[in-house]
């Protein structure tokens, strides 16, 4: 309630629908089940899509700020390199956060990520750790390359073993 369609929401619906439609026993109810799950998920992330809340703690800029602060504390050299090059989180992490990484990875990996995020009691805090882990896993390449290369790298995350990303996110959270 109170939130209309915003570009990109289809990227969130897609994986949900896929899961329900893949269940042969209940595939005929996939659309209805998808609607209810999408509605429940959107009730948790709707602040990401409400422009008037962009600057709030739970809005998208607040989430990008959390990512930036986390990266600064976990890997200051990478944080400084990106800052020095003028690569701000909005250039790459806006899509990561609002779409829950659904455009960054193949569908099986998205489902694995979502299982980890949605089963965590601090779901969207964990999402920030996953995003931070993604950046840190590119550390060496980010530190030795220029603005153009680093932008391309962050905007087109390279193929990787998603379990490695999630393990790194867990290590960051525990440290």
Structural Rg? 17 Å
What is the element string, with H for helices and E for strands?
A: HHHHHHHHHH
Amino-to-carboxy terminus distance: 39 Å
The major pleated sheet works out as: none
Q: Number of helix segments?
A: 10
Strand content: under 5%
State the share of residues found in helices, binned by percent: 55-70%
Number of strands: 0
The pLDDT mean sits at 90
Structural class: mainly alpha
Name the shape in a single word: elongated
List low-confidence stretches.
none
Describe the structure concisely for a colleague:
It contains 10 helices and no strands. The protein has 175 residues and is mainly alpha-helical.
Account of the 3D structure:
This protein is 65% helix and 0% strand. By secondary structure, the chain is mainly alpha-helical. The longest helix has 16 residues, at 30-45. The protein is elongated and about 50 Å long. It starts with 8 loop residues before the first helix and ends with a helix. The model has no long low-confidence stretch (mean pLDDT 90).
Features:
mainly alpha, 175 residues, 0% strand, elongated, 10 helices
Blueprint (SSEs and pairs):
Blueprint: H1 9-21, H2 30-45, H3 60-74, H4 76-84, H5 93-98, H6 107-118, H7 123-137, H8 139-144, H9 147-155, H10 162-174
Helix pairs in contact: 1-2, 3-4, 3-7, 7-10
